[in-house]
């Protein structure tokens, strides 16, 4: 697996992770 692909995958998963946390925070604020 190329190094660039690995870095891209890590960045993508971190992006998805922060997006999920943001959605949960918004849901808690709405309650």
Describe the structure in your own words.
With 31 residues, this protein is mainly α. The protein has one domain (1-31). Helix content is 90%, strand content 0%. The chain contains one helix and no strands. The chain is rod-shaped and about 45 Å long.
Q: What does the average pLDDT come to?
A: 88
- Biggest β-sheet strands, sense, barrel: none
What global shape is seen? rod-shaped
Distance between the termini: 44 Å
The total tally of domains equals 1
Structural class, please? Answer: mainly alpha
Q: Element order, helices and strands?
A: H
Q: What count of helical segments does DSSP give?
A: 1
Poorly predicted spans: none
- Percent of residues in β-strands: under 5%
Number of DSSP E strands? 0
* Rg, Å, rounded: 14 Å
Please estimate the helix content.
over 70%
Protein name: Molybdopterin-binding protein
Please tag this protein with its features.
single chain; 31 residues; mainly alpha; 1 helix; 0% strand; rod-shaped
How does the SSE layout of this entry go?
Layout: H1 3-30
What would a concise description of this structure say?
This protein is an all-alpha fold and 31 residues long.
């Amino acid at each position: 697996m190329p190094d660039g692909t690995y870095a891209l995958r890590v960045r993508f998963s971190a992006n998805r992770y922060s997006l999920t946390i943001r959605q949960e925070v918004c849901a808690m604020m709405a309650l």
